[in-house]
Amino acid sequence: MKTSPRNTAKILRDAAPFKPTLAIVLGSGFGSVLDHVEAAARLPYSKLPSFLPANIAGHGGEVVFGKLGGAPVLILSGRAHYYEGHDLASITFPVRVLAEYGIESLLLTNAAGGINRKFRPGDFMQLADHINFLGANPLRGPIVAGREHFVDLSHVYDAVLGKLLQRAAKGTGAKLHSGVYLAVSGPSYETPAEIRAFARLGADAVGMSTVPEAIVARQCGLRVAGLSCITNAAAGQSAHTLSHADVLATGDAAGRGAARLLENFAALYAKTETD
Ligand code: HPA
After folding, report:
1. At residue 60, does pLDDT exceed 80?
2. Assuming Cys at both sites, which of 74, 203, 231, 245 could form a disulfide with 250, CB separation 3.0 to 4.6 Å?
3. 54 pLDDT exceeds 80?
4. Is the CB of 208 inside a 6 Å radius of any atom of ligand 1?
């Protein structure tokens, strides 16, 4: 890792028109939320030392300070993925920067395949917990000074933020489930046998991101919330073959609901801060 998170956090601080305590990572299926952000400052990832570019279609690749639902937020539009070949330390570097910057709560969004038979494409799932099937852990490696190495993951996803998501979904038309997200490395989609196995393990949805960031965020003491857009039925559960283009198309179609949900969430979050 070339730069320290502190150096990159300073660049954010210098560019920031205000100081949000809520950050939102927009993953596949959530890119259009940016259209609903009143942007006050934008910084492309290329201007932020040690930020990886967001190369995948549907991922913007910039930090946006703005108002969402009238509330100040820091948006990370797009992320780098493990399946692109990066190590987990590089992928999770932005989370360390957010913690240094002073972010307190982090909402991680993603696209996911629905394993739970009750889930339909276009529904959303609030992460109640996760299963790390990446075969790797972002905390593996040298001890980070001042940070716990053996991080407790009994409560990765903050119950209060989870309730705020549930409240935020009311009246938006967005159907929000709660469930367990299982992370695979990808980039291939799963086999039907893998999906049957994951269902037996207790997973409700499967995706290729979020878990490394959530683990590092917990190490840094951030409160974490997770939100999946269910873009497809998981492999073997429908006659469709899976494609990234279809995942993005469903994400786009669900974009309006996603934007409303996140607007309400940011507004409710700001309200709890001032209460
Ligand atoms: N599997 C893994 N990742 C995904 C899927 C899926 O079915 N859909 C969107 N991201």
Report:
1. no
2. 231
3. no
4. yes
Q: Which of 77, 110, 116, 232 is catalytic?
A: 232
Share in percent of the chain as helix, strand, coil (round to 5): 35, 25, 40
Which one of 71, 169, 208, 270 is the catalytic residue? 208
Per-residue pLDDT tens digits for 119-178: 999 999 999 999 999 999 999 988 888 888 999 999 999 999 999 999 999 988 889 999
Q: What is the pLDDT of residue 57?
A: 59
Average pLDDT, rounded, for the chain: 92
C-alpha span between 66 and 196 (Å, rounded): 42
Residue-range definition of the domain harbouring residue 44: 5-274
Both tokens of 202, joined, read 């207790």
The gap between the terminal CA atoms of the chain, to the nearest Å, is: 40
Here the CATH number for the domain that contains residue 43 is: 3.40.50.1580
Give the total number of structural domains in the chain.
1
Ligand 1 centroid vs 112 CA: distance in angstroms?
4
227-261 core/surface letters (b: 16 or more CB in 10 A; e: else): bbbbbbbbbebeeeebeeeebbebbebbbbbbbbb
Segment 229-256 mean pLDDT: 85
Expressed in angstroms and rounded, the spacing between residue 207 Cα and the centre of ligand 1 is: 5
For residue 113 and ligand 1, the question of a CB distance below 6 A is answered with yes
d(CA 111, ligand 1 centre) in Å: 7
Report pLDDT for 56. Answer: 61
The CB density around residue 202, as the number of other CB atoms within 10 Å, is 12
Q: Cα of 255 to ligand 1 centre, how many Å? A: 17
pTM, entire model:
0.94
Give nearest CA residue, ligand 1 atom 7. 113
